[in-house]
Structures are given as structure tokens and as C-alpha cells.
Amino acid sequence: MKELTKIEAVFKQSPEDFIVEEVQEDWSPKVSVEDNFNKVPDISTLEPNESRSFLACEFEKRNIDLFTAIKILASHLHKGSDSMGYAGIKDKKAHTIQRITIFEPDMDLIKTFKHPNIYLKNFKWEKRKIKMGYLYGNRFIITLRNLDKKDAIKHSSHLRRLKHFANYFGKQRFGSVRGNNVKIGKLLVKRKFMEVLETLLLDTSSKEQEEVTLARIKLKKEKDYREALNYFPEYLRFERRILEGLVKKKEPVDIIKSLERKSILMYVHSLQSHLFNIILETSLAENFDFTQKGQQKIPLMGYRTKIEDEPLKETEEKVLDDEGLVLDDFNILEIPYLRIKGDLRDALVPIEDLELELEDDEQNDGAKKIILQFTLKKGTYATTFLENFFILRDPKP
């Protein structure tokens, strides 16, 4: 699959530039044509409840994250957030719609709910709660702006013929603030536990608040863990727990075990993702055909990965060697929950129902915009697709 040079595009200049519509086999909601936000729901067509406990509806939101929106609705209905069911988490800076269920709601309170960023519509009673993963995928309508005319024409021609795209892990997987997830993951699998703690404490980033950067620099210079507890901000709970452990002279491995499992596991997963991306990029550059049966997946490295059975054996061995790794590194007996057996991941992701329009960008003089519509199966992110072809820029304030 021939690589295309990435071009810059302004991403999410407004919530309407990123529309997400949940896709179900039997119920696929669509965003409202009219602006219905801050209006009470219309339940006039709702049939009487016949022994069904869950009220299902379409949950439309704009420029608000799902958890906040669910909490607002639950509060209005005098319920806990766990009374709400939903199949997937949708973006914050976007206009999205999805199904939700509400357990035994007070219908008088439903009738009075309105919010400037949330709208409820198309109600019916269901027997069961919607749970995470109960969806086919998502339909996206995305507008990319401020594109150079020639580049936009070239990319449009390429994208219209697209059937699938490279399944790279996105940059958020590697640390959106300090970008050191892979570094920490490699230290973990190499059992360099004290270096893990030092990296977590001392690595700096221009994206962090100044007081955090200054605290890290001061600790690196003075190396006084007890004193650092006096100036490391209280909200750095992760770092402060490490400092407390070091003050008590605990073993580094024991301090790591005391930290949140999900956070520590994330670093090893980041390392796996890094290796996957390198193998995928190298293989595509060598024109490896991932569409052929038996060679559609790439391993997420673990101690049980069988490279000798892989069609990309030489590439995978070279990547591990270049990174200074062996498969048994992932068998971290000292921290059992970090023992990673390994898995397989699709190298390519199918893209369905792709439509594309190229138009003048009314918000940026002399530029073009691309309007993309496509469907992705659950578990695949639109930004992963876009980052294959575009350098996504935030709009200017």
C-alpha cells in the first residue's frame, strides 16, 4: 500500500466539524437537522410501558464529554450515573449521537429535561440495559479545513479509492504530555525499577505547568525526596506516592506495585504499540501485502509470541534487536500483572461507505476543505484513520 505524504489540516474548528453517529444493527441514530439543544424532549409517540424497565432513547450532545453529560441527566432524574447504560464513549469537542438506556425513570422529570448541550429524542422501552460494546461501530462526518488547494485535490483523489488504512496506534498511546511512555515501558521490561521511578519523577515537558517543571528540576538537582514532598504539588498524587515510598526506603519494585495498575500497565502496552508501529511502517515501505490471507496481522509482542511462525519474521526480529529487546523481557515475574503473553492485531482496518466532498473553505480565505463521511467498526478511532494522511492542527484561538 503506497504511502501518501501527509498534509496539514485544521481539525475541529467547531463541534460541527466532527460529527459522530453510533451505528447499531437495528437502530442507527442521526444528529438533528434543526438545533434542538435547550429544548425539552418530545415523548408524545412513546408507547405505554409494558413491564419493561429500561427507557431507551437517542442521546445527542455537543461540546460536552459523555461522563459529564450522563451525570447532568442522572442528577436531573434524581438517579446515579450507574442507572444509565451506553455502548461507547464519544468525543467531547464534537456533535455526537448515541443510544442510552435509563433504568425506571420518572417520566415527569424526563419531560422537563433540557440543556444547552444535550438533547433526548426517539424514545422506546427496552428489556435490557445497553452495555459497553453493544454497537457495530460509528459513522463519522468530519470536516478538515484550511487545506492547500493542490494538496487537497491530490488527497481527495487518493482517499476516494481507499478501502482500508494502516492500523497504527495513535500518538496519544505514547503520552500526550511528556511523551515518555515507551521509555518507561522499556525500563519496566528491563527490570530497571529505580530508573522507572526516577523517570516518572524527573522527566519534564513544556506541556506541563511551570510549577511542575520547576519541582522536577529542583528534585533532580537536590535529590532530597523528603524535602520534595514539601514542594511537589498536591495534585501530583502519582509522584507523591513514589516520593513517600522512597522516603520510607521501600524497594523500587514494591513502590511500583503500590501504584495504580492501569497506569503502570499502560507503559508496557505503549512499548508493544511502539514495536507494532515500527513493524507496520517498515513492512508497508517494503510493499508487504497485508490483504493476503495468513498475513493480515502483526503481533503485539509478548513472552509467548512465536516469531518463527510469522510471515514478517525477519522484520520483527530486526525491530526487537534494534530496540535492544528479547521476548522474555515481557515475562516480568517481579510484577505478575505486567507479565504480557502477547496478542495479534490487524495491520489494516476496513473503511466502509466512504464519501468525500472537496469545497471552498468558508472559514479560511483561499483554502479548501474536505468533508469526509465513513463508517468504522467499534474499537477503531477516526483520528487513527486521519493521522495516516493528515497532520492535524488545532484551530487558532
Q: What this model shows, in words?
A:
- The two termini are 37 Å apart.
- β4 and β5 form a beta hairpin.
- Strands 1, 2, 3, 4, 5, 6, 7, 12, 13 and 14 form a 10-stranded mixed β-sheet that branches. The protein has a two-stranded antiparallel sheet with strand order 8-11. A two-stranded antiparallel sheet has the order 9-10.
- The protein is α+β, with helices and mostly antiparallel strands and 397 residues long.
- It has 12 helices and 14 strands.
- α4 packs antiparallel against α5 and α10 crosses α11.
- The chain has 4 domains: 73 residues, no CATH class; 102 residues, 2-Layer Sandwich (Alpha-Beta Plaits), CATH 3.30.70.3160; 66 residues, no CATH class; 87 residues, Pseudouridine synthase (2-Layer Sandwich).
Using the CA coordinates, give the radius of gyration: 24 Å
Taken from the alpha-carbon principal axes, the silhouette is globular
| CATH C-level of the largest domain | Alpha Beta
Mean pLDDT: 94
Q: pLDDT below 50 for ≥5 consecutive residues: which ranges? A: none
Structural class: alpha+beta
CATH topology value of the largest domain: Alpha-Beta Plaits
Number of helices: 12
- Any idea how many domains? 4
Strand content: 15-25%
Distance between the termini: 37 Å
Largest sheet: 10 strands, mixed
Helix content: 25-40%
Number of strands: 14
Q: Architecture of the largest domain, CATH level 2?
A: 2-Layer Sandwich
The ordered string of helix (H) and strand (E) elements is: EEEHEEHEEHEHHHHHHHEHEEEEHE
